[in-house]
Prior knowledge:
Blueprint: H1 5-28, H2 33-44, H3 51-54, H4 63-72, H5 79-101, H6 105-123, H7 127-141, H8 155-158, H9 161-183, H10 188-193, H11 195-208
Helix pairs in contact: 1-4, 1-5, 1-9, 1-11, 2-9, 4-11, 5-9, 6-7, 7-9
Amino acid sequence: MAKNYEDITLALAGICQAARLVQQLAHEGQTDNDAVDVMINSIINNNPSSVLNVYGDNVQNLHTGLSAFAGMFNMTGSQGLNAELTRYMLGVMLLERRLNKAPGAMDELGRRIDNLEHQRDHFGLSQEAMLNTIAGIYVDNISGLGPRIQVTGSPEILRNTLIQAKVRSLLLSGIRSAVLWRQVGGNRLQLLFSRSRLVDTAKYLLAQH
């Protein structure tokens, strides 16, 4: 079966968007709240009708991720930031693989997320309560799977407990996108051998929307 490179690119953009938002938070203490909301909501969307439905049925919701991915391989700019972004993305992909291989881990994560969705729908959790709950899920279900993703940035910013919760929530959203990426046929070899096609697809999606 031919791979759908548009779906693969969208899921990859989800991983990249989570990584880019983590990067911005760690260095600047703030980022695009709408883009954060898209990623947080993607965690709870467990029965999507399509890849794009995971991200609110709007390619524009992945603008941050598509732009960051399309620019990652441009070596005439912020090479340090690109290396950091790549490290976060690969770290997320590694944790997704560990999650997939750990007996019962995916089922337990799914149960916790279902419970979170129930709490949100029935008790109207505030955004801060949502972030803290998702961060707790990340610590309980992901942190023990392998080497932790070392987030670098301003030490003062990273001491802020709300920033910490946002970072962990975004990393979990990146893992959710990595699960989706693998489900639609994505793999790390494509980043080596089909990179041009993926970047071209990202640029096409940006131009169309």
